[in-house]
Amino acid sequence: MLNLRSPAPQRIVVLGGGTAGWFAAIALRRLFSPKVDIQVIESSSIGIVGVGEGGLLNFINALQRYQIDIDEFVRETGAAWKWGFSYEGWRTGGEDDRFYHLFASQETPVSRWSERGFYPCLSAMIGQNIPLESYLAASPLIKANTPQDQASALLKANGGDIVPSFHFDSYKLATYLKKVALSRGVMHLDTVVEEVVFDQQGHARMLRCADNRTIDVDFLIDASGLSRKVLGKSMGGKWHSFSDYLLMDSAIPFYMPHPHENPMLVTRAITMDAGWMWQIPLIDRVGAGYVFSSKHISEQQAIAEIEQRLGYAITPHKTLRFDPGCFEEVWVGNVMALGLSSGFVEPLEATSIGQMLEQLYSFERVLVHSQGIISDKTIREFNQANFQSWLGIRDFLRMHYDNTRRDTPLWQAVSESPYPESYRALRECWQERTPRLLDVESYAINGWRGIFHAINWMFVAAPLGVVPSRAGQMDLLALPAEKRQQALNFAAERHQEINR
Ligand SMILES: Cc1cc2nc3c(=O)[nH]c(=O)nc-3n(C[C@H](O)[C@H](O)[C@H](O)COP(=O)(O)OP(=O)(O)OC[C@H]3O[C@@H](n4cnc5c(N)ncnc54)[C@H](O)[C@@H]3O)c2cc1C
């Protein structure tokens, strides 16, 4: 059992002042009485990773939960709307090869009409190879590169269509969250933590810093980024690598000017010879990067390929290396790893901050519902749920690589890489019927909420052909004739709109 009530903790330390660390500090400050110190320790000499500029469907909800003023957030972080992703070159590699994964709301008539677990309108569209985004009012605005104020107007008028999120500057975000946290009483120290001292039960009790300072700790959030200072380096946590299934292990970030008149309303994921390039449009610039497999291309070759593709020289930031995966247990004793220190796969679908916020939300739920008296069983179940959530991310990302590209050694290797068993089992069914909640809800267990709905899976699975049109047609056979016709009429209207 972990007792955070009696005697009350004196100090909770968050090691790390990146997005994860500051969000955690804000969350904890809200939960604990002012008698408990919440202290963030970060090192300006180490700095933050400086990437991670796109949120997911849970981002605005998190800002609201932490009572962060959205207008102020937008002003201070250079934020621009994010309504989903544009996948370019993932099938043929051709100029016109593009599909969208948009953050479709689950509150539209299309997603609310469910029969035996499937969505007749979506099944009808898949059955006739109609792009799924075409039922969303957001879609033409994205394609027309609509300015931000007009996008805001659509959200106000038709807010139920899409769940908006943001692109933002990661440095400005950390600075802004720090300002919010300090204004609410979070304490801050700029130093390097060199050693974590544990008691006989394996609980972290003290931090030794480079300036000879020592800091007592009752609970420790390890948000130390890719350095994984506590759970990784000091505690030897068990790492679970996904590298058999996800081949990307390196990234070269850089900035670029907007290629279009206005910031695009989606993150672009553009395939390259040995991976793919992200382009995240903020108000003033685009944050970009080449994610690649180091077995298939060198850093120099990657930079040359970017420059050839863009037609101008870039100033690359430091190359980041990672082993895609996560710790099997992120909460051990009185230490919990959060953000990059707990796991990272790759930026595809921008899952990292989204997963971090889900973990933080579930952690808060445990603290509140247990009133600080936390059983080993609860911690075990928390870890199981967190791990399961990562497996969902692994499978979702693996599906993106289940594509038809074979034209370079990397895409050849991708096509030969194995499926995780859980993904293989789902994929087998999806040859006969469309994905449904039943298939993906087990990625969110023990009270966790999950990031991606079955509809998100469909937005990617259908255009890639992982779910063939036949699956949509088969779904409809289960419907009485009148309902089937209603769904087919809906698809026919979308078809007409596209070809108008
Ligand atoms: C290539 C790449 C692209 C990404 N793209 C996306 C994306 O599009 N969307 C998304 O959601 N996420 C993305 N991410 C992940 C995202 O960057 C992180 O989830 C997010 O920035 C949170 O980082 P963090 O706070 O965990 O770590 P960091 O920002 O690295 O912060 C770590 C902190 O720990 C401190 N620290 C470390 N060691 C010590 C020590 N010994 N003593 C004192 N302080 C220490 C550092 O100073 C720093 O303050 C991407 C990541 C990578 C690598």
TrEMBL record:
Q: Which InterPro entries match?
A: FAD/NAD-bd_sf, Flavin-dep_Halogenase_NPB, Flavin_halogenase, Trp_halogen
**Keywords recorded for this protein, A-Z:** FAD, Flavoprotein, Nucleotide-binding
> What is the protein name given in its UniProt record?
Tryptophan 7-halogenase
Any single Pfam family the record assigns to this protein: Trp_halogenase
Residues that coordinate or bind L-tryptophan: 349
Q: Which domain of life is it from?
A: Bacteria
Report the active site residues: 82
A molecular function GO annotation: nucleotide binding
Query: Where does this protein hold 7-chloro-L-tryptophan?
Result: 82
Query: Which of this chain's residues are annotated to bind FAD?
Result: 17-20, 193, 340, 353
Q: Which organism is it from?
A: Jejubacter calystegiae
